[in-house]
Amino acid sequence: MCASGRSLLFNGGHFQTAAETRSVLSRSIIMLLYFAACLAPAFLISFVATAAMRRLAPRWGLVDQPAARKMHTSPTPLGGGIGIWLGIVVPLALTQVVALLLSHTSKLSGWFPAEFKFLLDGIVHRSGQMWAIIAGGTILAVMGLIDDLCDLPWLRRLLVQLAVAVALTLAGVRATLFVSIPWLGGAVTVLWILVLVNAFNFLDNMDGLSAGIGLIAAAMFAVVMLRMTSEPRWLVGGVLMVMVGSLAGFLCHNRAPARIFMGDSGSYFVGLLIASMTVLGTFYEKSASVTGPHVMLAPLCILAIPLYDFCSVMLIRLRQGRSPFHADKSHFSHRLVELGLRPSHAVLTIYLATLTTGLGALLLYEVKGWAGAWLVVALIGCVLAVVAILETVGRGSNGDS
After folding, report:
1. In whole angstroms, what is the distance from residue 395 CA to residue 331 CA?
2. How far does the chain reach from its first CA to its final CA, in angstroms?
3. 67, 271, 309, 333: which could form a disulfide with 200 (CB 3.0–4.6 Å)?
4. How does pLDDT run across 26-46, given as a tens digit for each residue?
């Protein structure tokens, strides 16, 4: 006991009062409860809805038949994207309803924990943008379902994606890039959305691959939003954690051998949501002294593997004079299988590569200035160089697919 009567604890080279300790514990408990509230409902809804889709999809004609360019050997239901969609949208909708009720009814707000009341204003304030993103993702998911049923031309799909990306940019989902050119942020945002929507669609070529990469990326971005910034970005981080829960529920049915695929509806929705959350999220603040502008590289680090796969596949197809959206076996995952890996091991390898680049993104927040950041960039470059070597060996031994 100190002279003033306050209890003191020694922590990290300085004395900490009992009140400060209680505050730290309170914040930790709030964070754990927040994680549970985001993850558990999304997981359960997605798990149950995907199980239901395994029975309903064949009745609706949503079945993926085996083909030369595909890895599965038996007809497999599509429509797992509906389970993912429900696992994300239903918890967000319920949260929105609760936030609106509590913000407009003082009697109801009495039972709501005081520690979480600061979230209500943010949810209500950002609800317009959030539901614009959900609406855009829903349009792409519906288009994906139609494509799963009747194989839409790639140009028509691209035009719908472009329209959704432009609409979201006009609705305020726009990167600032800290430049004074107004249209540049909008143009970069549209391109970013188009690339990620199609990158996750391209990744959907093996059991658990696209959903697993989406889960890892969403979890990494959530850690950045909730732990690495000067103040937690509760809304963006919460949406990302809801996505993690929903994708985990779906993956219970999509592990090799997959009993259901997400289809284009799921990959388009996941790609759009991750693209939009990375735009809305704040990675760098000029006013914050704890980080520098180099942390703006974090999204590129976390998504390095999906972006590399997308760009390399596009270049291979264009070089061969084929449509860049014509499905084939030019992906990194296929090259690993050609080298002798089992598909499940190839997927695990890509998980680990994505996790490595994602940890590099977190490391950006621990280094000071560009000198340390360039070391992280070099690390990511080495990982991509290993990927390129493995791709080249696979292609050389089996020919371009």
Report:
1. 10
2. 74
3. 271
4. 667 777 888 898 999 999 999
- Could you tell me which of 184, 194, 132, 190 has the C-alpha nearest to residue 157? 194
| Rounded distance between C-alpha atoms, residue 252 and residue 46, angstroms | 10
Lowest mean pLDDT among 31-45, 316-330, 365-379: 316-330
Q: Are 47 and 211 in contact (CB under 8 A)?
A: no
Domains of the chain, residue spans: 27-279, 295-401
Per-residue pLDDT band for 19 (boundaries 50, 70, 90) equals low
Backbone torsions φ then ψ of 205, nearest 5 degrees: -125, 0
More confident residue, 96 or 398: 96
**Pair type for strands 63-64 and 14-17:** unpaired
Asked if residue 395 has pLDDT above 60, the reply is no
Q: What is the 3-state secondary structure (H, E, C) of 173-234?
A: CCCCCCCCCHHHHHHHHHHHHHHHHHHHHHHCCCCCHHHHHHHHHHHHHHHHHHHHCCCCCH
Residues whose CB falls within 8 Å of the CB of residue 146, separated by 6 or more in sequence, listed in order: 152
Residue 230's CB: how many other CB atoms inside 10 A? 12
pTM above 0.85, yes or no: yes
SS3 of 102, please? helix
3-state secondary structure of 365: coil
What is the band of 399 on the pLDDT scale with cuts at 50, 70, 90? very low
DSSP for 240-252 reads HHHHHHHHHHHHH
CB 196 within 8 A of CB 203: no
